[in-house]
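hiii so um. not sure if this is the right channel but i have a protein structure encoded as tokens and i wanna go backwards to a sequence. like what aa goes where. can anyone help
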């Protein structure tokens, strides 16, 4: 009987703090800005995280891959991000510096989402089995941050959540220097423009199925943005008591399904893990649309919220594992940056724009009195997600990639995978260039 190895607890604490920082300010920033007369700028507070995700990850992934150990880059970025977010409240009521400081924080924070994944994957023997057990602590961190700032401190409309995020960022910044050493795998190699743009990772990963996965990941992130922005408003409009508490059930579901992922991944494989995750988005929005006319179909709304565990874990976490399995050590950081760019960056940015436009065009007047219009609002992302699901199931075939890799191993006759072979060859070329 094979003994199961538990992941390094240092990685779990890293994930806990990583998502505690984000959860501490992200949910409450809108209420705080409204309280200080910045209602018109709330939209921008939810736009800067995707901008950070678009601008930063490839550059930071390249730095971590080539020049500095990942844990040190992680530490520096969190220390800088903590300073920026701590200064934000000093400019309340002044939209431009307020939003610019939030942007600077997110330019520091966004790359750490990929770097924490890179660091964790480097120190796990079995990514499919062990990574979900590490990543679940990120979800727990998000839940706990909400409990701290809302239920313990009662600070939803104050700057306190920003200070809590700053303190957590300072803690993770210092703690990062004590994480397991993760050396840059491509140290000493010449920097190329194509690498700065992430084209190396895209070329190495870019099989037809991977391209399908990448595009579908970006597209499915659009309805995700609608959920974060408008599901709490809908729950309140449906006259369901304690909407913020009800919404937290989604993160609780996420944590539960994260623990089940090793078992499910082994039985379903990557294609159907991803497919079920996308199907859950269709079902969620269908339930919201069905509940809208009645204005209080609690079980439909709650079931839609509880589906968050399947929606998020089965697609986004499975996607991170898939990218890591397809990456070589030399492109691991760029690969994680690529998926962060597609989902948290482009997808969420477009989602914030589109969902706002649809909401303003469909749900008019008093949102509590417009439940019939809410039905139309939720049908649109349901149809959109269904189209993405159909395209993904039809076009994505990971069996082709597995057959090609098996054929490559057979040709080589040494038992190494294609990624391992490429890494070894790259190392040999580097040694030859150095005259070793």
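sure thing!! here u go:
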């Amino acid at each position: 009987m094979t003994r199961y190895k538990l992941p390094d607890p240092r990685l779990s604490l890293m994930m806990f703090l990583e998502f505690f920082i984000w959860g501490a300010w992200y949910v409450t920033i809108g209420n705080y800005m409204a309280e200080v007369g910045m209602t018109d700028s709330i939209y921008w507070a939810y736009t800067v995280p995707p901008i950070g995700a678009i601008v930063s990850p490839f550059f930071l992934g390249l730095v971590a891959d080539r020049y500095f150990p990942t844990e040190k880059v992680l530490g520096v970025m969190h220390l800088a991000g903590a300073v920026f977010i701590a200064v934000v409240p000093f400019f309340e009521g002044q939209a431009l510096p307020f939003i610019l400081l939030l942007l600077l924080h997110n330019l520091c924070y966004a790359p750490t989402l990929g770097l924490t994944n890179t660091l964790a994957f480097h120190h796990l023997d079995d990514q499919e089995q062990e990574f979900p057990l590490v990543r679940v602590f990120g979800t727990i961190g998000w839940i706990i941050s909400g409990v701290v700032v809302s239920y313990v401190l009662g600070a939803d409309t104050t700057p306190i959540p920003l200070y809590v995020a700053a303190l957590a960022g300072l803690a993770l910044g210092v703690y990062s220097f004590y994480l397991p050493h993760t050396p840059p795998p491509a140290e000493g190699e010449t920097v190329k423009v194509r690498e700065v743009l992430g084209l190396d990772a895209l070329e190495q990963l870019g099989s037809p199925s991977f391209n399908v996965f990448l595009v579908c990941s970006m597209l499915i992130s659009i309805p995700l943005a609608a959920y974060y922005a408008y599901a709490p408003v809908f729950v309140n409009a449906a006259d369901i008591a304690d909407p913020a508490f009800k919404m937290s059930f989604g993160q609780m579901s996420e944590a539960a399904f994260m623990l089940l992922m090793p078992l499910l991944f082994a039985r379903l494989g990557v294609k159907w893990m991803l497919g079920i995750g996308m199907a859950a988005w269709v079902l969620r929005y269908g339930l919201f649309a069905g509940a809208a006319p009645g204005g209080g179909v609690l079980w439909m709304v709650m079931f839609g919220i509880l589906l968050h565990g399947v929606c998020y874990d089965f697609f986004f976490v499975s996607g991170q594992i898939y990218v890591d399995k397809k990456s070589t050590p030399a492109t691991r950081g760029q690969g994680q940056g690529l998926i962060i760019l597609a989902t948290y960056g482009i997808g969420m940015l477009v989602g914030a724009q589109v969902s706002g436009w649809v909401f303003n065009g469909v749900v008019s007047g008093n949102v509590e009195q417009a439940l019939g219009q809410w039905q139309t609002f939720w049908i649109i992302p349901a149809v959109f997600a269904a189209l993405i699901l159909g395209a993904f199931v039809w076009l994505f075939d990971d069996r082709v990639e597995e057959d090609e890799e098996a054929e490559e191993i057979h040709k080589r006759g040494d038992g190494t995978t294609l990624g391992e072979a490429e890494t070894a060859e790259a190392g040999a070329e580097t040694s030859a260039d150095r005259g070793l």
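oh and The radius of gyration is 22 Å.
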